[in-house]
Amino acid sequence: MRILIMEDDSKMAGLLKEGVEEEHHSACLAFDGRAALELAASSEFDVIVLDLMVPIFDGFEVTRRLRKSHNQTPILVLTARDAITDIAKALDLGADDYLTKPFSFVELMARLRALARRGPSPRPPLMKVADLVLDPASRRVWRGNREIHLSPTEYKLLELLMRRAGRVILRNAIVDAVWNVQDVEENTLDAFVSLLRNKVDKGFKTKLIQTIRGAGYSVREEPEP
Asked: For residue 200, what is the domain's CATH number?
């Protein structure tokens, strides 16, 4: 395995590198977030080990930037911070596994081998309707050459519509999928569709988000006959 280790404690970094090399693997060290990102961009690694608390860019930001740049190398977070909120945040940003310090080096290597066997996560395909493009991996959206910035709820609504592009999605099905609650106000869906239209369709001749009266909504290139 070829492993990138981001750790600002030089003693800990040295011990990790020595241990990895004794197991007949190679390790590259980065002592801050910028160095880790530069190494990840310029070299191929089988797995990346990130400490959360490092200078310049912390482990959260490095994870976010790696995934945003479409780097899907497996990431293991290695940190003294064992708060469940920190662990959950790292996993939500795209980390694949974690260990808290102090840890067993045997367990660390076992987890790294498992991640390396798994390999990079498969990248989901882009969703396209006319010149509207949604990237599920980075959660970014474009219309033509313009990037569209959406709130989390707006993104969830658009992704649902684009996954079923060309088909009518009933109002109650949209509410269940996007809000997953039963007490949503009657006009909440309409309000979010209006916000979405203002960002996706405004200024474009072809209107892609369409209302199917008495039923629901659809994303399609051609209007409902």
From this structure: 1.10.10.10
